[in-house]
What we know:
By secondary structure, the protein is mainly β. It has 7 helices and 30 strands. The radius of gyration is 23 Å and the shape is globular.
Amino acid sequence: MRNQPNTALRIAVPLAILVLLGGSIAAAFLFGGSKPNSASTTPAPPAPLANTTATAAGTAATSNAATPVMPNTPTEPSSTRGDGAADASASGTAGILDTPTGPDATSASASSTGSPEAPADKQWVGLRALEYNRAPLTPIGTITPTAEGGSFSMQITFSPIGAGIQKLELANHFVHSDRVEHEVLQSFAPSKANSLVGIVPFAAEALSIDGQRVVLSVKPTDALKTFWKEVAPGSFEATIVDATEQPVAVLTRRFELEQNSYEFVLRQHLRNVSGRNFNARFEQFGPADPPLGIIRYGGDSRRLRFGYLTPSSQNPARSTQASEFLITHQELLSEAQFNPSTNLPYWAAKPVWPNDKSNKETLALVWAAMSNRYFGVTVQPPVSGTAAAGEGKVLRSVESIERFVVPNGNPASVPFTESIMNFVLGRQRLPAGAVALKLNSPQTPVPAGSAVDFSIAAYAGPLEKDSIKAEPISSAVGLREIVVYSFGGPCAFCTFQSLTHLL
């Protein structure tokens, strides 16, 4: 539950900082000096992926009823998904994107990367996902608090788009002390450019087979269709066929949620039923923005964090590190472009992992997390115990991660004078977009008659070391490193982690 802000502190601290800043500026004028570089900590994006295709961003997901799929959006199974396309959306976020139409429009979601094309006599023709009528979907878990007899820590409601998450709601955590409104850590985030488009966390986006990309999110021509059928609560199946209607591949997604746990596992398997070998690449969405909450002096406290392994020569214990790559929400919204057709900003898909530093230092990704001041939502490998020792904790089903953004109607920038007044008065500018992580698998050979595993796990709960330690997967992959005690804002550097951990 969130405390009420300290008004006196919010005014006094900024005034003190202004005095310090004024002194620094005066010293700079008196003694000279060069202008500092304003280099962002966000890693420079690598070269664009080959064969990228713009996708329609996630259509609004309606969890338990047939609802229209947004136009210009590829279909996704019954799950909440919405790609972040600011009209021109960039890559899909558990859904499809609306493709920008202005001169600055860039293709958003990367589809099949670098897989060599099949020989001419083996080209796939007319691959597509079978369609199903949308129907009500069954949630898993419950929001009944433990004190009232509940046995789950969360409830997950699903969307007919990409078989993703419409809403993830905690049972024992509330927004206010009246204990009426439960904390919602993940939910569909609509785009201001099109209310039916948006972000659907943990939704399937697309599958590429030998370089041919098949959308698994939203069908733009039929609002009552989905590419997924529910086979059990939290379990979904999509079938890809060729031009002759012969089955080529079957993709299954099953959300597993244990009682009294903040973890869930998303079991995903791709079966090759075509009778011949192929290479596959799977695109899905991972964590999206957690709630913004009350913006205090430190500003928007939401962050993107990574846990990783350094080389064994430097880290013989093979412990998970997380001291680098803390990316603020403001940095995630950098490089916004303007789409004149919608009068809104949009953001091209931008790689956030791997990056120059991770490549240079040969870092291996273990987990990625979107967090706010009190809660975090992660993607991590579904391993625990001895299986998570050393290299076993590496997230091998994810080769690269992109930021995906949809506009929410707030201005992307404000005049300088207004920003100064906001700072003095302790007011914070609301972010201009909602962000999600788009996860791309490596190119994976799938022999005829066999299956491959794209499973992932997630933690969605409080940023408390004891809570994380109690979860078998999160504890095994070193997720405790996500907990950082910091004052935030301009005075974040004043926080001494060793002292705060002791306290």
